[in-house]
Amino acid sequence: MDTASRRFADLTTAESRARFIADGGGLAALIDAGALSEVVTMPLAEALVLGLMRQGVTKYLAIFGHGSTAIADVLRVYEGAGLVRCWQFRNEVEMAHAGTALSWVWNEVPAVVTSIGPGALQAMAASLAAASNGVGVWHLYGDETTHGEGYNMQQVPKPQQGIFGQITALMGASYTLSDPASLRDALRKGAAAVFHPWKAGPFYLNLPLNTQPATVNLRLDALPERPLFTPLAPADDGAIQTAARIIAASPRVAIKAGGGARHAAQGVRALAEAAGAAVVLSPGSLGVLPDSHPQNLHVGGSKGTISGNWAMDEAETLIVIGSRAVCQADCSGIGWKKVRHVVNINADPVDVQHYNRTVALPGDAAAVAGRLTRALAGLAPDAGKAAWLSAAAAKKAEWQRFRAARASGAPILDPVWQRPVMTQPQAIAAADAFCRRSGAIRFFDAGDVQANGFQIVEDDAPFRTFTETGASYMGFAVSALLAQPIARAGRYGVAFTGDGSFMMNPQILIDGVEHGVHGTILLFDNRRMAAISSLQEAQYGGDWRTSDGVAVDYLAMARSVAGVVALDGGTSPESLNQALGRAQAHPGLSLVHVPVYWGPAPEGGMGAYGQWNVGNWCADVEDAWARTLI
Hints:
By secondary structure, this protein is α/β, with parallel strands linked by helices. It folds into 3 domains: about 5-220, Rossmann fold (3-Layer(aba) Sandwich), CATH 3.40.50; about 240-395, Rossmann fold; about 415-600, Rossmann fold. The chain is built from 24 helices and 22 strands. The strands form 5 sheets. A 6-stranded parallel sheet has the order 3-2-4-5-7-6, with helices on both faces. The protein has a 6-stranded parallel sheet with strand order 11-10-9-12-13-14. Helix 6 (about 90-105) runs parallel beside helix 7, helix 10 packs across helix 13 (about 365-375) and helix 15 (about 425-440) packs across helix 16. The model has no long low-confidence stretch (mean pLDDT about 95).
């Protein structure tokens, strides 16, 4: 037996083990040196922290409760040794969103810690954002004991064992550590979920109160590592050649670039140019083609744009890249009215076959797009492609003129504010331009701000705008700012939020100061859920129960928290720019309040250009879907 390994096995406290690992250069260094090959005995909670460390997970976002005191004490010891870091929060929804942003934006997978009961239910609800956007996060929940001695506080009050494990299993991948010896299996299954190459998501690890302090015997060098996945592509060129012939022979080709296309932006651009294709973006794939690229027809879908939805209506051949074909992206299944052939590039074997008449090209988007581009190089393109791209350019120019007109203009008299104020398009456009000049990351909250935002933003590369359209979770954007000080190299960010979304997680004001956020909350205030008000108006001719008459002084609220700078954004792009500049100059958290218009004037929003299976539109959409070919 190695001397160092024997010495470690003889240590009897978490403090001594943590010091040994820290003095040895860290867990990975000691394992590589063969110094941790002996079987050791330790509490399950400590072994779990080491198991996550083995996968590179050393950041914990926590709200500790009675179900997590054991793991809290381990984290106290290991943070004292400099091996992990833990941040406390005031709300589990906020905390889970911050964890999602840390993984999504900064590629650092954290662990979110809470207890079962209200805390875990809130964290689990917020994990919809991670699940819907393919973001890996560990969720560690204290659970009821395994002894069945009677109801445990905060468990589901039902005389049945393992209820919370059933709930988490319905939500996604989950595991209950009823037996400490199953830790390695739990870690392996969890790693497969949070590090999945194309559909990562949250992994829920339930930790019964009595098994957390129970001892487990294991070799630390046998703890599962973070899995590495090699990019995949079709084994031969048969399907690729078939797809290339279809694309070359079609005069009207469109590419739908979904979220899976963001990591393959160069490949998407090369394929679009080789295929003579108009590129239609999803709300989450802004920047896959530069905004000014002549073949970028902008967002298409239920909200969409003039140009993006025109391409969806008129295309005859569709190339799908990394898209799940969600209702908002393809108009509840009726967005591609004239398409007769589909080429689908997707790593997921189910999503790649979503449409009829599909040539399925399963695999990594960059690898497959590159091979398809090379296959097109040897084929003569249909003569009609030039006319298609010319018509696409005309529609793009139409959209750009419309977007510019809505982003400019004079303030409009608002019935709530009783004075002229900016519209959301005007304010968002000014703030977007500021972020592009300053290099700020943009986060968009759900609602009208989000819908107008993805139509307005002018990105030239992906991952500069993060819009949580998967779950449309109100409060995500403001909570996402908390990831900036936690990340190794976090950057300044601006959270575009409405008054409704902000009030879902206003504790960002406190936690943002506590953890040293350098970011700005840009609060667009129209005293209503404007997205739903507009939908009600469009469907039923009037809005109902989507607004209130309560005036809130958000500047006073923000100023009540020491360390927050609160600024009035004013009623013009000039005043807003000045406020944003002052906010960025502040080294901490800031809030810029902007009153915005809502009402019947069409200039108040960017409009909608597609269909959606909601409300009294359902019959028409479902009738159209029954008649679709693909």
